[in-house]
Amino acid sequence: MHCPFCRHPDSRVIDSRTADDGSAIRRRRQCPNCGRRFSTVETASLTVVKRSGVTEPFSREKILGGVRKACQGRPVDEDSLAKLAQRVEETLRSSGLAEIETQEIGLAILGPLQELDEVAYLRFASVYRSFESLEDFEAAITQLRAAHAAGSEDEDLASPAQV
User: Cα–Cα distance between 160 and 129 in angstroms, integer?
Assistant: First the structure.
């Protein structure tokens, strides 16, 4: 780490603390050459591997953009979209991998998006999973209906029967 004041190529760590809920480390450093102190923040980088093999840094904004398109015209607010993107990023980072394939990102988006808005989920899934026919849509809708039926059965079992 170069000193930002004298550009000396070395520094000594004086103190280290976690920051941003443990996703970053804040280090207090001192330059052995000029004696001045400065802070650094270190975060683990997350790289996305595209289908073509090209890699690029992870961007929460790209997730927001794709989900925003799927939610266009739906009653979903920006705050909900931001929370979804944060949830997806946390899921990806918790995998412990430094490189994530776009396929994994899409899978991480589908679950939270289905919970947020089913129509937006179908829109996103149709592009992500490359739906080519009405049968593809029908299969996805059938899965959603089955999930609803299972969810309502769980609710019936959880609540006491009215007599």
Answer: 40
CB atoms within 10 A of CB 76: 19
Using pLDDT thresholds of 50, 70 and 90, give the confidence band for residue 160.
very low
Average the pLDDT over 62-91 and give the result: 92
> Which H or E element spans position 147?
helix 134-158
Indicate the pTM of the whole model: 0.66
Q: How far is residue 85's CA from residue 19's CA, in Å, rounded to a whole number? A: 20
Question: Tokens 């931001």 sit at which residue?
Answer: 82
Residue 157: phi and psi, rounded to 5, are: -70, -30
Which whole-number Å values give the CA distances from 65 to 3, 62, 68, 69, 82, in the listed order? 38, 5, 5, 6, 10
Distances, alpha carbon 66 to alpha carbons 6, 25, 50, 60, in Å: 44, 30, 15, 10
Which residues does residue 41 pair with via DSSP β-bridges, in sequence order? 26
What pLDDT shows up at residue 148? 79
Average pLDDT over the chain, rounded to an integer = 86
Closest listed residue to residue 15, CA positions, set 45, 47, 37, 32: 37
How many beta carbons lie within 10 A of that of residue 109, not counting itself?
24
